[in-house]
Design a protein that fits this description.
17 helices, binds nicotinamide-adenine-dinucleotide, alpha/beta, about 425 residues
């Protein structure tokens, strides 16, 4: 099938590469020339495990190509995926400007009957606006599909190749037939295609992210209470996660959620609710709790080093909003670093993938280390912010030797409290006893 994907960010690039892997001819188009130039040269602008070989192989075998020429990409397509960004607008709603601009391009340049798929996360009811934007210029019939994406950065290729489910919001048989054909190679293990109306598909995406963010904020608040009452959140987590109605996933407390999706999608859903006169108090609380959680690590640094932080130096392990990605959008590390700098603390950070992004955001306000151990030199404390695998079992003797004093603030509960105590580390984590 001839497919075009508009937008080659974290979602569009993965979608395009994976769809070419199953034999489709895919053109990925983006308005960012620098990005397209890099992609054409097999230089992948994002860190996403497993993506490089997919792009290289399919580009070499001429099933995948990249262009800034949206007209050519759209005119050759039977199916167009819109995967452009939907950033947070000033009032908290999702900004549809890029989606609608892409939709207008589709209408202007389509050269046959096509299916237009909204992959971007758009508020419930947006399909009407997308339809109008396409229809303004369309000379051929077109069929809409809302196909929200559930991939996770860090495991995006695996998630797309082996999805838990595919959600299709459609209002035509044509869209159902075409989309079922496109997805059938990815669903051979029997995972379902859930076909529904378009508003329900749009709502499913927001409800999924809202639910996941709720679990995180809930556990963060329980952990903070454990801190005060001397309970251990690890035991509590296992205690509740063993209940089959609850399950173990997404119950790990931490420094607050970040990334390009949860913060903006929670805000947008709360906004949609208030526009409709349906207050979403639970989700509004989830957001407030998350904003507060992003300040917890600074409080723990204070507990460890005292209130007067001016002139101290702190090593930060992990800048990306989570392990497996270089994405720093809304990353908890940014909130922590900002707060530390405001206190007059100097910061040296390490991250296996996000240093380039960090430099573009933070410039020379902080120092950057080549290795995680190098970040510790001359530091009064280590703060672990991202749960990269390489931080899970460090050489603790070396950590102790290199730090000015053995202080670790662990925002991901990676280390064993008893082990830290035995090593003589002054150790603070989230919702567990200190050592
Ligand atoms: N990142 C995730 O983990 C994730 C997961 C599921 C859903 N989503 C949703 O998918 C959408 C895309 O997210 P992302 O993280 O890939 O965004 P991104 O910011 O990484 O990429 C968006 C890309 O779209 C391009 N673009 C903007 N306008 C364009 C146009 N008119 N034509 C062609 N390209 C255009 C931009 O240049 C950019 O490269 C968002 O709605 C997001 O909420 C993201």
């Amino acid at each position: 099938m001839n497919i075009s994907v508009l937008g080659t960010g974290y979602v569009g690039l993965v979608v395009g590469a994976c769809l070419s892997e199953t034999g489709n001819n895919v053109i990925c188009a983006d308005i960012d020339r620098a990005k397209i130039d890099r992609l054409t040269n097999n230089d992948i602008p994002i860190y996403e495990p497993g993506l490089d070989p997919l792009v290289q192989r399919n580009q070499r075998e001429h099933r995948l190509s990249f262009t800034t020429d949206l007209a050519t990409a759209i005119s050759s397509a039977e199916v167009v995926f819109i995967a452009v960004g939907t950033p947070m607008g000033e009032d908290g709603s999702a900004d549809l400007e890029y989606v609608l601009r892409a939709a207008e391009h589709v209408g202007r340049h389509m050269a046959r009957e096509i299916v237009v798929v909204t992959k971007s996360t758009v508020p419930v009811g947006s399909s009407g606006k997308v339809r109008n934007a396409i229809a303004k210029h369309a000379k051929f019939p077109f069929y809409l599909c809302s196909n929200p994406e559930f991939l996770k950065e860090g495991t995006a290729v695996e998630d797309f190749m082996r999805p838990d489910r595919v959600v299709l919001g459609i209002d035509s048989e044509r869209a159902r037939t075409v989309m079922t054909e496109i997805y059938s190679p990815f669903l051979r293990t029997g995972k379902p295609i859930l076909v529904m109306d378009i508003p329900s598909a749009e709502m499913t995406k927001y409800a999924a992210n809202g639910m996941l963010a709720t679990r995180i904020s809930f556990m963060n608040e329980i952990a903070n209470l454990c801190d005060k009452l001397g309970a251990n959140v690890d035991s509590v987590r296992k205690g509740i996660g063993s209940d089959s109605r609850i399950g173990q996933s997404f119950l790990f407390p931490g420094p607050g959620y970040g990334g390009s999706c949860f913060p903006k999608d929670v805000k947008a859903l709360v906004r949609t609710g208030s526009e409709c006169g349906v207050p979403l108090d639970v989700l509004a609380g989830v957001e407030t709790a998350n904003d507060r959680q992003k300040k917890v690590l600074l409080g723990k640094v204070r507990s460890a080093l005292g209130n007067e932080l001016k002139g101290r130096r702190v090593a930060v392990w992990g800048l990306a909003f989570k392990a497996g990605t270089d994405d720093m959008r809304e990353a908890p590390a940014l909130a922590l670093i900002d707060a530390l700098l405001t206190e007059g603390v100097s910061v040296c950070a390490h991250d296996p993938a996000a240093i380039d992004h960090a430099r573009s955001l933070l410039g020379n306000r902080i120092d950057y280390a080549e290795t995680n151990y190098e970040a510790l030199v001359g530091a009064d404390a280590l703060v672990v912010v991202t749960d990269w695998n390489e931080y899970r079992h460090p050489d603790f003797e070396r950590v102790k030797r290199t730090l000015k004093q053995p202080v670790i603030v662990d925002g991901r509960n990676l280390y064993d409290v008893e082990k830290m105590r035995a090593l003589g580390v002054r150790y603070h984590s989230i919702g567990r006893p200190s050592a």
